[in-house]
Structure formats: structure tokens, C-alpha cells
């Protein structure tokens, strides 16, 4: 029977009176932890997926949409661009562009987007194969680790793509052509985990037939014997001017040069293309995030204050009932400091229980969000991950428990035993 | 100086005790000397300050003047914490109605008494004592599950678990019927005798005056 177990017994003796305090505290801790986790993991995903890309070039429209669609694979494309319009970006002698990767998007497989591109994209995202080989011909695909895991796909498996980017279940319009899995990526914590990669030309086949355009079957036999086949950028550039892709990801030679800084504006003002700076667009998204978070922060602060008050009030009320009991402890040899500590420990216990419940709450919510958010936002959350900040949160919780208990504790320690025993 | 060789050591004594109530009223008390092992009644009408005197003797209140000495220690010369600790070790107290820490069992209440007095927990001694007081089967019960008579016996168990030098009882029988009164007084005297403690009983209960000869009137 020490102070800790006595404090515990006191709390559990009348569990209902402490319940409200514990729940409020759990709510406040839970919300803080949730905000911290969402923010931290969102920031990391944004950063991981920047992949050193300085510019996204696509059809006119919203620069944010272009960025989200081309880099994070969420939302809709702004439209397509013709090869003729973007060919210059792939010129190795371009004064500003060091490197460029073409993207064709628009189809999906069970909610996972099919991205036509060149293997260079893998290098940009530091993605590596865990199994199989790089795609070499049309309709050969390399799939992200999550795509493979969630759909149980392995090497050699075949599937048909859905037209459009939303998984509509029964109503999906399926393309007739079959894709063959030739490679699977190792998990990398980037959006590459969640995409299906193939050649740009694949899109021309499936959509050529589907939409009845006359590009169908266009010269796709020509390079069959070629070493790098369809995945080579040269093969892409040699095709007709009016073939379309969705966008081009660009890395600069020198991002801080004067020409590079003016490059997006030049494109936007002088061509039919849209050039978006992903770092800028993402910082805009973050700013939106921040102002939302500030409002939530005020709410959380209010809940935290109320929960601290609730601990204070429930301790204060319990003192009235327990005056005689505390005097008795003094008679039995407990000094004022012991009585003080007992009440403080009771406050701290409420805080610790609230903290543990709060973390369970926030990581439980993260678990459910993780299950639902991934398809819509390409945002993979790890609910089992605990941040170092959550240790600080424990410190904060203990501090609040202490502050809420300190006045009742002082009062308990200063209770006049003689008078109390006479009243009893 | 006259030595009375047959007198045992004085265990509890007070000199020139007076107490000032916050309301301004002032009470002066007669000196008390209790040898080890003695049982004494403190009698007085209600309002005569019996309970106040008992609390002064226990160091639960601070006297305006005078001293209280228990087993050679001047109670009011001790610091607050030391006095609390001293009380836990050397004094046992029994009140008119038995009070316990409600949230823990009878056994845990006795364990608390041991620990707060600075002793090691000794469950064997607790079980043994509760057995002697016919409370062995109630050891794991919450205090509220005991009858009034059982509660008063458990309170006595708590008062003597640390083998105190002095047991102070404040109206221990006024809430009890004749049978329980006889039983509780017998128990208190036997328990005090077993640890050779001085037993001081504050009461206005006339049932006790015929049993106990040593009496001080306020």
C-alpha cells in the first residue's frame, strides 16, 4: 500500500467522477496527437514526392491541379499536350532543362493509376525493383509495392485497366487490352508505391481503339526488335507531332539561375502550355493546411483548458467528501507533504490515463483514415508510427495534471486535522 | 525528591496545557501523568474541551501554553512532519465513529497504518491481529461492508497495529449498545495490556466509570 496504489484505489473507487476528466483529457490529447501525426506524415509525403522536380509542364488549367495530378497522382488532369509542343524539353542541349520525363495518365486499375512514362522516373523517385525487370514494351507494367500487395499481383499476372481514374466497381469501363506484370517495386514511401508504370505509347493503343482515332496500331511494331523498345525516350520523340501525352516533369540545370527563375513565366505567357512550380504549389497547399490547423488548434486549446478544469473540479469535490479520510491519514502518521503528494498523484494519474486513451484514440482514427484515405489522396498513413513529439505530449499532459491538482493538493495539505476530526 | 519505586515509567504527561480557540475562547487543562500500562478515563461534560485535550495530547492541535511529553519526547518540539511520523509510530487513536480510507480494504487500511508510520509492511501481523479480533474473514472487505461493531473493532486493530506507547480513545463507546460497549472496552484494555500501552479514554459514558478506577475530571 503506497501512495500510488492508494491514489489509484481512490480514483477507481468512484470511477464515474473521474470519468469525465479522463475522457476530456483523452479527447484533447487525442486531437493534438492526431494533428501532429497528420501534419508530420503529410509533410514527409509532400517532400518525398518532390523528387527534385523543378517544374511540371502540361495543358492550360489550374497549376495546383497539374501538380497534384502529375506528381501526387490525385485529382484530374488539366488536359493533354501534343508531342510537338513539348519536344523541346527533351532536347539534351536545352539551356535550362537538365532532364525531363514524359507522363501519360488517365486510366487506372482498381483505383491505382496507370502511368505511362520512361524508366528515368524510377531514378528520380529513388525507386528500385524488388522483383522482375523494367517494362520494355507496351502493355508491360511495373507495379508499386502497395499495388502488388493490395491486389495480390505477382510477376506474370495479367489484368485489364479501367478507363478513367476512379474505381467505379461494377460500372467500370474496361479496356480490352491486357497488361502483364513484369516487375514489382520495393516499397519506398513515395507515390511510386501506389502506381502502375508502363510506356507512354500504351495509352495510344488503348485510347486509339477506344476513341476510334486513327493512331491505332500506328507503327508500334517498328521498334519491336529494338534493344530498349518502347520505353526509350527516343522512340517516343520519333512519333507523330500530334500524339498526346499528359505532362512533362522537368529538372533544371541550375534552379537558381536567372533563366530558370523566369522559365515558368516565359512558358505561361508565350506558349499554350502551363508550367507549374511544384514547390510553390505545395507551399500553397500547406498554407491552407496551416490556417485550418490554427482553427483546430484553438479548439484543442479550449478542450485542454476545460479538461484541466474538470480535473481540478473533480479533485476539489472529492476533497470535500474525503476531508475526514485525509485527517485520518495524518493521524496515522502521514505528513502534509504526503497528503499533498497523494492529491498530486491522483491528478497525474488522470492525466496519464487520459494520455494513453488519447493516443489510442488518435492512432485508432489514423488507422481508419489510413484505410480510407489512400485511394482518394495517395496518402499512405502509418497508424502504428509514434512521433517523438508524442513524448513531449506526455510531458505536457503531466504538467497539466500537476497544475490542475496543485490547488486542491495545497488545500488538502493545509486542512486543520483537529477541526476536521471534530466535525466527523 | 521523592522516589516511588513501585511506579512504572511515566509514558504520557502534560504540564500547564491551555488552548486558545480561533473564536477567542481559552481553555486550561489539569496536568496529566499516565504510567505505562495504565488505563485512565478523562471525564467531563460536553463542551468542557475533552476532545480538544485529547487532540492536544496527540499533537493534532498546537497548545497556547504548556507541554506534552510522550515516552520522553516533547511533542511540540518536533517539526510538523516529524510529529506526524511520531504520532503514527507511538500513538494509536480510536474515535467515536470508526472512520477508514473508504476505497481500500480493512487489511489495506492496516497496511497503510504500518507504512505511514514508517514501518515495513507486515501482513502476517495484520492477519494475526484481525484473527484475534474475529475479523479475519473481513480482511479483504471494504470498510463499508462491516457492521458498526466490526468497524469499531477494526479501528482498534488499526490503533494498535504499530504497538503504540499510548492509545487515545475519543468516546469509543458512545455509539455502541451495552454488549458492544463491554466488548470494545474489554478489547481496548486487553490490546493495551498486550503491548503495555497507556490507555486514555475520553468519555461521558457512565457505563465506563464503574469499570475503570483511574479518572481525571475536567
Can you characterise this structure?
The complex is a heterodimer of chains A (424) and B (218). In chain A, the strands form two sheets. A six-stranded mixed β-barrel of chain A has the order 3-4-9-6-8-7. Chain A has a two-stranded antiparallel sheet with strand order 2-10. Chain A is an alpha+beta fold. Chain A has 13 helices and twelve strands. In chain A, a hairpin with a 2-residue loop joins β3 and β4. Residues 209-228 of chain A have low confidence and may be disordered. The two termini of chain A are 24 Å apart. Chain B has a single domain (10-217), classed as Rossmann fold (3-Layer(aba) Sandwich), CATH 3.40.50.300. Chain B is built from seven helices and ten strands. Chain B has helices spanning 50-57, 80-90, 106-116, 123-132, 148-160, 178-194, 206-209; strands spanning 10-20, 26-28, 32-35, 39-43, 65-70, 73-74, 91-94, 166-170, 198-203, 215-217. In chain B, a hairpin with a 2-residue loop joins β5 and β6. In chain B, α3 runs parallel beside α5. Chain B is globular, with a radius of gyration of 17 Å. The two termini of chain B are 28 Å apart. Chain A binds chain B through residues 1-2, 6, 9-10, 12-14, 322, 324-325, 328-338, 417-418, 421-422, 424, and chain B through 51-52, 55, 58, 60-61, 80-81, 84-85, 87-89, 93, 95, 97, 99-104, 108, 111-113, 115-118, 121, 158.
Low-confidence stretches of chain B: 1-5
- Which secondary-structure class do the elements of chain B indicate? alpha/beta
Question: What is the count of structural domains of chain A?
Answer: 2
Approximate strand percentage of chain B: 15-25%
**What gap, in angstroms, lies between the N and C termini of chain B?**
28 Å
CATH third-level topology of chain B: Rossmann fold
Any idea what the CATH architecture of chain B is?
3-Layer(aba) Sandwich
Mean pLDDT of chain B: 89
Taken as a percent bin, the fraction of beta residues of chain A is 15-25%
Mean pLDDT of chain A: 84
Reading off the top of the CATH hierarchy, the class of chain B is best stated as Alpha Beta
Q: What's the shape of chain B?
A: globular
Order of helices and strands of chain B: EEEEHEEHEHHHEHEHE
Query: How many beta-strand segments of chain A?
Result: 12
Given as residue ranges, the uncertain stretches of chain A (5+ residues, pLDDT < 50) are 209-228
Amino acid at each position: 500500500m503506497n501512495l500510488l496504489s492508494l491514489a489509484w484505489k481512490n480514483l477507481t473507487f468512484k470511477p464515474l467522477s473521474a470519468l469525465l476528466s479522463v475522457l476530456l483529457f483523452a479527447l484533447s490529447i487525442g486531437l493534438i496527437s492526431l494533428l501532429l501525426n497528420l501534419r508530420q506524415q503529410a509533410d514527409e509525403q509532400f517532400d518525398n514526392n518532390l523528387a527534385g522536380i523543378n517544374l511540371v509542364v502540361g495543358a492550360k488549367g489550374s497549376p495546383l491541379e497539374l501538380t497534384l495530378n502529375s506528381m501526387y497522382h490525385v485529382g484530374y488532369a488539366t488536359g493533354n499536350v501534343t508531342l510537338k509542343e513539348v519536344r523541346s524539353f527533351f532536347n539534351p542541349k536545352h539551356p535550362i532543362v537538365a532532364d525531363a520525363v514524359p507522363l501519360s495518365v488517365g486510366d487506372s486499375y482498381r483505383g491505382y493509376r496507370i502511368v505511362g512514362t520512361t524508366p528515368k522516373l524510377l531514378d528520380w523517385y529513388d525507386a528500385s525493383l524488388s522483383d522482375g525487370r523494367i517494362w520494355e514494351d507496351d502493355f508491360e507494367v511495373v507495379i508499386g509495392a502497395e499495388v502488388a500487395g493490395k491486389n495480390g499481383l505477382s510477376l506474370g499476372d495479367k489484368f485489364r485497366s479501367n478507363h478513367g481514374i476512379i474505381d467505379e466497381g461494377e460500372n467500370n469501363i474496361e479496356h480490352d487490352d491486357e497488361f502483364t506484370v513484369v516487375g514489382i517495386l520495393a516499397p519506398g514511401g513515395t507515390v511510386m508505391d501506389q502506381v502502375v508504370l508502363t510506356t507512354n505509347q500504351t495509352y495510344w493503343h488503348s485510347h486509339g481503339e477506344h476513341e476510334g482515332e486513327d493512331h491505332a496500331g500506328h507503327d508500334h511494331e517498328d521498334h519491336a526488335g529494338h534493344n530498349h523498345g518502347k520505353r526509350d525516350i527516343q522512340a517516343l520523340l520519333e512519333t507523330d507531332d500530334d500524339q498526346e501525352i499528359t505532362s512533362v516533369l522537368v529538372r533544371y540545370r541550375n534552379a537558381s539561375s536567372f533563366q530558370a527563375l523566369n522559365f515558368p513565366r516565359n512558358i505561361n505567357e508565350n506558349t499554350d502550355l502551363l508550367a507549374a512550380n511544384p514547390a510553390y504549389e505545395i507551399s500553397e497547399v500547406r498554407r491552407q493546411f496551416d490556417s485550418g490547423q490554427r482553427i483546430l488548434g484553438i479548439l484543442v486549446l479550449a478542450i485542454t483548458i476545460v479538461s484541466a478544469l474538470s480535473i481540478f473540479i473533480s479533485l476539489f469535490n472529492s476533497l470535500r467528501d474525503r476531508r475526514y479520510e485525509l485527517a485520518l491519514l495524518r493521524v496515522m502518521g502521514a505528513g502534509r507533504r504526503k497528503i499533498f503528494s497523494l492529491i498530486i498523484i491522483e491528478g497525474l494519474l488522470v492525466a496519464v490515463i487520459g494520455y494513453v486513451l488519447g493516443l489510442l484514440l488518435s492512432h485508432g482514427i489514423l488507422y481508419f483514415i489510413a484505410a480510407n484515405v489512400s485511394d482518394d489522396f495517395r496518402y499512405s498513413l502509418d497508424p502504428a508510427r509514434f512521433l517523438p513529439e508524442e513524448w513531449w505530449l506526455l510531458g505536457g499532459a503531466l504538467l497539466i495534471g500537476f497544475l490542475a491538482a496543485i490547488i486542491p493538493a495545497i488545500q488538502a495539505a493545509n486542512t486543520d486535522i483537529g477541526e476536521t476530526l471534530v466535525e466527523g | 525528591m521523592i522516589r516511588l519505586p513501585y511506579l512504572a515509567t511515566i509514558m504520557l504527561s502534560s504540564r500547564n496545557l491551555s488552548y486558545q480557540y480561533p473564536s477567542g475562547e481559552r481553555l486550561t487543562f489539569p496536568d496529566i501523568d499516565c504510567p505505562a500500562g495504565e488505563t485512565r478515563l478523562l471525564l467531563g461534560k460536553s463542551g468542557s474541551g475533552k476532545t480538544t485535550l485529547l487532540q492536544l495530547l496527540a499533537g493534532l492541535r498546537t497548545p497556547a501554553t504548556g507541554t506534552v511529553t510522550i515516552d520522553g519526547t516533547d511533542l511540540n518540539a518536533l517539526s510538523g512532519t516529524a510529529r506526524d511520523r511520531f504520532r503514527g509510530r507511538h500513538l494509536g487513536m480510536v474515535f467515536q465513529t470508526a472512520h477508514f480510507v473508504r476505497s481500500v480494504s480493512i487489511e489495506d487500511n492496516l497496511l497503510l497504518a504500518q507504512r505511514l508510520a514508517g514501518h515495513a509492511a507486515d501482513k502476517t501481523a495484520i492477519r494475526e491481529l484481525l484473527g484475534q479480533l474475529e475479523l479475519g474473514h473481513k480482511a479483504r472487505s471494504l470498510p463499508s461492508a462491516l457492521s458498526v461493531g466490526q468497524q469499531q473493532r477494526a479501528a482498534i486493530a488499526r490503533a494498535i497495529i504499530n504497538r503504540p506507547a499510548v492509545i487515545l480513545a475519543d468516546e469509543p463507546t458512545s455509539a455502541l449498545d451495552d454488549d458492544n460497549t463491554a466488548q470494545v472496552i474489554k478489547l481496548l484494555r486487553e490490546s493495551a495490556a498486550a503491548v503495555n500501552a497507556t490507555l486514555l479514554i475520553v468519555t461521558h459514558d457512565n457505563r465506563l466509570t464503574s469499570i475503570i478506577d483511574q479518572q481525571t475530571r475536567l
